[in-house]
């Protein structure tokens, strides 16, 4: 296990994340994107990756640059390949702009199907006051070099989802019981988080990072797919360079649904993101 | 202070909440509503009341009856009087339907202005499995008869906002320091919650209840207006009859924004709702 989570991206090489979330404006409010199979978990593309991509398109449409609060509803499974994102402004204010985006794919029958719908307000993180009164504490977890990477997976380094190769994820051993058939029974998942090619975090990669850890359901003893119904992300500060700590918790697994609450802390001990998703828990 | 939070609504009388959130379909996807001044806080109508009203209209448009996860972005201040809600389906699935709604008012100049935009997924709460594994605990708070109602307000019973007359709200004394100039410094607010006319809770009144308590900012020592930017509500179960317990917490007052996290517990000790809002905290 290497000692550092990130290595510098050489020269002007575009990072994997920037390359795979790049959107190309066809006309105002219409962006083309080629979704990469590199962010798949099983057969489906990761919801955080899709949100980051749609978020970049919406950021080009809105008058403000940074996602402040972003909600996505996932409508159907997204496949790698071309997609189009249609976005529009609902209101352009002085401090915040609000708008919507829809990501569509065209099937073999020529029919467009919507994959996710986004409603979001954007602002400018650089204009926030420096009055910070946070009573939350960073998650208690071991140093990075005592956490588990995909290379430590008892099922072998290739057992991780394809998306795992894009990330430098180091799981807190206290939340890894599921990987050896001994889930803790607590709805908790924690990890050090970076991108594998060393790209530092920004507001758009945070939209992906909130959905990048194994589901808390695994530690609750469920093993099936946990599809996201809805995901809301609050980006509260521009993250400092360096590894992030991501802490996920679930308290209410009930009626076939559960919530995942996420906090992301940066290397300067700032709570940079809070998110919550509602997901379906398929019974074993 | 009466011993019970609710008295029966006599006969067939429509409750205040049902009357004031009633929507009338003009054509499919277009509903008229008359917003009541009875739900004002200062000059603005309460965001939860508006969400409940838009939620009812969207529920008539979608194929499923109950709000499961509902997000609203508040675009401009809403005034009492007529409004129109335009809603549409994004996807109708077997278990969930997803759609959007916008609430508009027409100004003196004849121009329509959007007040809030909603994105939501609805389902049928009666179809949920009865597998309940909740590790959260109901809030620790005194019995209802030891909590404070508007009648106990040291500034007089009429000092409460107009909306307070619609509610039977009993605040936990531990979170009432702000009312006597001695805020606790903790971002917490708790109350027993009912409707003043005794109407029991349902999924739509929960959409209002999550935004009905005084802001946690008051207990953090701020006294100004705390306008909601975005509010997301997960309704996780149909509430049992009887008083609700509403617990609100804030951990991240930073950069001029704060989150309010809400849990609502019903009389059967079921966690029926989780919500989070992002709000602006105006400096004193």
From TrEMBL, chains A, B:
Domain of life: Bacteria
Gene3D superfamilies: Acyl-CoA thioesterase, double hotdog domain
Domain Acyl-CoA thioesterase-like N-terminal HotDog: 36-122
Residues of the Acyl-CoA thioesterase-like C-terminal domain: 154-279
One Pfam family per UniProt: 4HBT_3C
Protein name, UniProt field: TesB-like acyl-CoA thioesterase 3
């Amino acid at each position: 296990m290497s000692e550092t989570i990130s290595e510098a991206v050489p020269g002007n090489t575009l990072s994997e994340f920037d390359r795979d979330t790049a959107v190309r404006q066809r006309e105002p409010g219409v962006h083309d994107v080629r979704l990469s199979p590199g962010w798949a978990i099983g057969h489906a593309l990761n919801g955080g990756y899709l949100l980051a991509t749609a978020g970049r398109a919406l950021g080009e449409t809105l008058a403000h640059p940074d996602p402040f609060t972003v909600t996505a509803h996932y409508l159907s499974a997204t496949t790698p390949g071309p997609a189009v994102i249609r976005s529009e402004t609902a209101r352009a204010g002085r401090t915040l702009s609000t708008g919507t985006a829809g990501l569509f794919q065209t099937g073999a029958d020529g029919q467009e199907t919507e994959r996710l719908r986004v409603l979001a307000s954007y602002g400018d993180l650089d204009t926030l006051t420096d009055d910070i009164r946070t009573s939350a504490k960073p998650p208690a977890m071991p140093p990075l070099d005592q956490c588990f990477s995909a290379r430590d997976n008892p099922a072998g380094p290739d057992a991780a989802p394809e998306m795992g190769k894009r990330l430098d994820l180091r799981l807190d051993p206290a939340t890894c019981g599921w990987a050896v058939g001994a889930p803790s029974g607590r709805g908790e998942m924690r990890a050090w988080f970076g991108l594998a090619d060393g790209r530092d975090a920004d507001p758009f990669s945070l939209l992906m990072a909130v959905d990048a850890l194994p589901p808390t359901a695994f530690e609750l003893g469920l093993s099936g797919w946990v599809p996201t119904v809805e995901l809301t992300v609050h980006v509260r500060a521009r993250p400092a360079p360096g590894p992030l700590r991501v802490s996920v918790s679930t308290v209410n697994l009930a009626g076939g649904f559960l919530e995942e609450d996420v906090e992301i802390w940066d290397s300067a001990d700032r709570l940079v993101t809070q998110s919550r998703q509602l997901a379906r828990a398929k019974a074993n």
